[in-house]
Write a structure and sequence with these properties.
With 135 residues, the protein is α/β, with parallel strands linked by helices. The chain is built from five helices and seven strands. The strands form two sheets. It has a five-stranded mixed beta sheet with strand order 4-3-2-5-6. Strands 1-7 form a two-stranded parallel sheet. Helix 1 (7-16) runs antiparallel to helix 5 (119-132).
Amino acid sequence: MADFWSEEWFAAVNSSADVLPSVDGLSFSFDVEVAESANGKVRAHGQVTDGRLSSFVSGKFVPEVKGEKADVSFVGKAKRLMPIITGEQPALVAYMLGELKVEGEYQLVVDELVNRGDAVAFETFRADVASATSV
């Protein structure tokens, strides 16, 4: 198991994404900001290409064009995000409770990825990430 937000953890997340099937035409960039982690405030940036996680790395999004932002941003505290990773709380519930903020083009995730994606494959991905995460 890898410590949450360590380089080993990011490698495990990226490797676990192999189970996700393609969703043609669904591509977007995203940022994740986690407050109150063991390392303070931490950030990561990722890319979804045709419905699959193609990249997820530690660090802040660096735009190619000044002023450009990621398509979607997720913001939350570590203690509120861990139940999502471990499967104790669905992400939608955390969002509705205000424990997970989703900013930007949220419909790419809420409407497109959730409705067009494979729920079983996504749960397998989440479980793989949870089993690789030291809590």
